[in-house]
């Protein structure tokens, strides 16, 4: 099944001391490029955030207003592409792979009654920004919230019927420097 990718990379990286988290290097590859590698099979990829140097060509956009949060980023990213499935990932998922993304898309295509299929982190926490969504469902959820600025991802998407993987390292995100040492 064809899919588009929306990569959220516009956060302030406050817990990283203001360092651009997307450009932090792990094992020789930036966190952003690691996510872009995982989503390389997308028909189109848009990164929501400041333009940076990446290993492959992508479209770039920013939420309006800038620094409006992840729901505003999703709204901006959904303006790109037309595939019926949208894989949404934040740039701080260094252990996600192409296989993980394929699993999400295939699981969604086989599940008639769900709006999205997402990863759980190793601790079992649902990662709303590591999931494949039906474009129509995601678009409608964001439309219902009205102004997407500073809205909660969980509250915005709470009305969607979602399924989740078993806990996996692929869903582990990196919020602090210490998280880079804990795969």
From TrEMBL:
Name the record gives this protein: MobA-like NTP transferase domain-containing protein
Residues of the MobA-like NTP transferase domain: 5-157
Highest classification ranks of the organism: Bacteria, Bacillati, Actinomycetota, Actinomycetes, Propionibacteriales
Transmembrane regions: none
Organism: Kribbella hippodromi
UniProt cross-references to PANTHER family, sorted A to Z: MOLYBDENUM COFACTOR GUANYLYLTRANSFERASE
SUPFAM superfamilies given in the database record: Nucleotide-diphospho-sugar transferases (SSF53448)
The keyword Membrane is assigned to this record: no
Keywords annotated in UniProt: Transferase
Keyword Cell cycle appears in the UniProt entry: no
InterPro entries: MobA-like_NTP_Trfase, Nucleotide-diphossugar_trans
């Amino acid at each position: 099944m064809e899919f588009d990718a929306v990569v959220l990379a516009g956060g302030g990286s406050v817990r990283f001391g203001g360092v651009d988290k997307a450009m932090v290097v792990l094992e020789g590859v930036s966190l952003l490029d690691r996510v872009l590698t995982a989503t390389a099979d997308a028909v189109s990829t848009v990164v929501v955030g400041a333009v940076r140097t990446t290993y492959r060509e992508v479209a770039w956009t920013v939420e309006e207003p800038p620094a409006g949060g992840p729901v505003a980023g999703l709204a901006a990213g959904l303006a790109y592409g037309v595939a019926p499935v949208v894989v949404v990932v934040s740039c701080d998922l260094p252990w996600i792979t192409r296989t993980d993304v394929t699993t999400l898309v295939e699981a969604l295509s086989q599940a008639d009654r769900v709006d999205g299929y997402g990863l759980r982190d190793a601790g079992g926490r649902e990662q709303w920004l590591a999931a494949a969504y039906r474009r129509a469902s995601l678009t409608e959820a964001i439309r219902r919230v009205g102004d997407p600025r500073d809205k909660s991802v969980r509250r915005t998407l709470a009305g969607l019927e979602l399924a989740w993987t078993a806990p996996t390292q692929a869903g582990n995100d990196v919020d602090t420097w210490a998280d880079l040492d804990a795969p």
